[in-house]
Amino acid sequence: MSAALDRMLGALADPKRRRAIELLGVRPRSAGELAADLGLAPPAMSRHLRALKEGGLVKDGHPDFDARVRIYSLKDGATAELKQWLAETEALWAHQLGAFKAHVEDGE
Questions:
Q1: How many of the other CB atoms lie within 10 Å of CB of 72?
Q2: What is the pTM of this model?
Q3: What region holds the HTH arsR-type domain (predicted)?
């Protein structure tokens, strides 16, 4: 498993961060909007957003009308490596469970 995937899974380990990802899946939002929606203080939201950015899941930008505001959105293709790892892991488990089932059925 790569270090990037480790950071992504670490970022997703927190339920507030997963909820932030769900909210950003609906539409981009400011940190203040996310904090209000999640019931978090601004410093706590800032820490969560930093973890999500370090995990490669979100990006931020400034709207043309106000450079003081940051708008957060999901990063395109961010979960591709995670999806690949999950598919490989699922295939491994399916193979292992199939072998176990065959072993049990042969022993009966």
A1: 23
A2: 0.78
A3: 1-94
